[in-house]
Structure prediction request, 656 residues.
Amino acid sequence: MAVQTSHTPLMLTITEEHEMLLNAVRDFAQKEIVPIAEKFDESGDFPMDTIKKMAGMGLMGIEVPEEYGGAGMDVLAYVLALTEIAKADASHSTIMSVNNSLYCNGIMLFGTEEQKQKWVKPVASGEKIGAYSLTEPMSGSDAATMASRAVLNAAGTHYIINGRKSWVTSGPVADYIVLFTMTDPSKGSKGISAFLIDANQKGLIRGKKEPKLGIRASATSEIIFEDYECPVENLLGKEGDGFKIAMSVLDAGRIGIAAQALGIAEAAYEKAVAYARERQAFGQAIGQFQMIQQKIADMKTRIEAARHLIYNACLAKMRYKATGARYTLEASMAKLFASETAMFVTDEALQIHGGMGYSKEMPLERYYRDARITRIYEGTSEIQRMVIARNELGMR
Amino acid sequence: MHIVTFTRSTPDTTAKVEVNGKGEVTWGDAATVVNPWDEYSLEEAIVQAKNVGGKATVIAIGTEMHNEALKHSLAMGLDAAVRVWSDGLDVTDSLHWATAAAAAVNKVGDVGLVIFGKESVDTGTDQHIYQTARKLGWTMLSYVAKILELDAANKTIKVEKVLEGGKQVLTAKLPAVISVMKGINEPRYPSFIGIRKASKAEIPVWSLSDLGVTLPAASTQLVGYSNLPVQEVVTEIIDGATPQEKAEKLVEKLLEAKVL
Prediction:
């Protein structure tokens, strides 16, 4: 595989450990998640039972070292597992992705030893649920304009946090949140700081649950802070480090969303292939028609291209562990291409199914709705293109 | 006290198993899985060993393909895994199998309980379980739905057995051999930490000479495998003006076919 620096290993090896993990996750996802996915999509309830079972296996802290309650595996293990979960149900994979790459990863990268012990261990082991909160009602991609505030009290013991955050994945059920809020508005994005928040403490109100097009079982809500008192020891990194933390955490997050998109695409593709083989029209299987064959060929090619871009991002993340070189570009390319592939594949797979695809009798329409978010969250496709182009042009 | 359980890799239950042109049983490129009945015996072995503060060992008899089931067992949390194999061991002959199994249990040592899943899903047999108990000379309790008590100090076991139309509670002396039903527990999925340990594990192989046994003369002879005859299915749509007329015609046909 072609890569950009000599420090990156040239090959990813799928070890026996990866194979065993893949089989275990696939078995779990097909037996435990597939049968309930439709019901939870319909109700929009949070699938706590299956999430707890996933945690019991180690799916909530895959890359977190064992001493902090995780499974101590690598980014490839994370990608393989997340893809399998997404194939069964995108909502479950969203919850898993936030816990792993946004919550645990952020604290593992920037937290102190005490913070890792206190805030990572219970979430990686699945005892508690983690969330990540950056977006606000009037501040999405442009994080520097956020309106929420954290002000140090006179005694210097607590930050007093006020404001409204939106689109918090797992917001209604989260125990702990990595929160990004403004400590010095005059500095723009350099005035953002990150805090570790106990969501069951006074001053935090869980707001309205968002009614969503897809990933309906991954509960998303507003979180309102009203004079929330956050002890100074819960500042993650230093004051003003927030934007840097948010962005580097998103590098890992984008690999996760790419893996999720790949899983959704694979699920839709497999259904499409089976249907094209079986469905008869005009006296033959519809897979005999060239127009269906073109769709199958394009879907398969894009899926494999997405997979390789994700593997490329995994290699880049491994390089980062060895050299510290950021992998923003590789993560953005994987996320951009995989999410657009998920849209393309779910659309074409639904089209191959015709009216059956449009019906709630089959999961195609759910795949189609679920795929849509992957082009939006953790950086829209437009933001990914901007990141990639600026990187190539050397412009900031 | 040591608890021993047996497992094997079997073709996935959704795989299409057939006999190829050379007369061999094949299942295409479908994966092998842990014999589905064994998931319950493996889980029970882990739970009971923990309850009595003992150790749980899993054994497979056969070729290297069974390492997969053994590694899955280790990933679930079994303490140790062993494979028994020697050329000439015919695993389709249940007496061969049971002779090797009983010798392996004796080699493990200090075994108080052997737990089997109800049957092997691939060959659809369970006589090897009873033969193993007989070879060991231990009490056999089949179709166990629940272990009510395992008393390592007094060396007794109390179980609930499934009978046709009811259940039976029995107490027996240890050591004993039991076969367990689905529903006795909810088998756990392997944990990632378990997978990491299992993937690195070297599975020891015990030969028949390590076990100090010689096999009896084969009591069965394998003549060959053949595919099931293809069943011809004829579909007929019953016409009628009203649902009642259709139902009457259907009943007539069912009576004709002596189904009713």
